[in-house]
Amino acid sequence: MSNGRSRRETRGPIEIVKNSWRGRLARPLECVPVTTGAMDDRTTTHIVWDWNGTLLADNHAVLEGVNAICRFYQREEVDLDYWRSVFTRPLQVCYERLLERQLTDEDWTQVDKLYHEAYNQLLHTCGLARGAEQVLADWQGAGNSQSLLSMWFHDPLTELIGRLGVADFFSRVDGLVGPMSGGSKAEHLARHLSVAGLDPATVVLVGDVVDDAHAAESVGARCVLVTTGMTARSTLEATGHPVADSLADAVTLAVKTRV
């Protein structure tokens, strides 16, 4: 953890400037490009991690949020396998499938509110996915860099990674800024890589949903998908991207994966 002063360290092709840590990130971490020689072998040097369902084991909280919506709309509650079978982005389409009705803007506001109220009540019971801290430490210890990009809200995201003790593993942390969630990660990933000064050809995105694959494809990065979150293995495999059952296996595949 930080000693209260900013610190500067260099990992690979980017120079990382970390703000002092006082229980939360005062602002997103800055990444300033550093001039380096051309890379002859464009191997993986940076992982962009997804959070919910990937590094964070929160399936039970997600399912409670979904079932809070089911109860409100008088629909039978669902189990995790069913939710995985219908999960997609944009999330509004997903919930329209679940509820078998079109959602008005008012409905969508209500759905968003119900979900996050129920999810947040269980957030204190959510911890890191199995092996997450060791995987992050090993990747960093090998001289590589990594960052975190989530479609969850930025402020609670940064607070939680601080509480769980993994903030210092990331060169940059970006969460959603704004009142609503549920869109695609593609434009957020493009901005994340641009600000960090990262070459997409050296980046692998590790996530748990098909939208992660689409986001990686949109910027020319690679992707490894994990079965630990909200998507059935068969659905992940249909994307054509490598699929892993653990974070450690995901990193192994990330090193081997090519565009």
From TrEMBL:
Keywords: Hydrolase. GO terms for cellular component: cytosol. The keyword NAD does not apply. Signal peptide: none annotated. One of its GO terms (molecular function) is phosphoglycolate phosphatase activity. Its EC number is 3.1.3.18. It is an enzyme of class 3 (hydrolase). It comes from the Bacteria. The keyword Ribonucleoprotein does not apply. InterPro entries: HAD-like_hydrolase_sf (IPR050155), HAD-like_sf (IPR036412), HAD_sf (IPR023214), PGP-like_dom2 (IPR023198). One of its GO terms (biological process) is DNA repair. PANTHER family: PHOSPHOGLYCOLATE PHOSPHATASE. This is Phosphoglycolate phosphatase. It comes from Actinoalloteichus hoggarensis. The lineage of its organism: Bacteria, Bacillati, Actinomycetota, Actinomycetes, Pseudonocardiales.
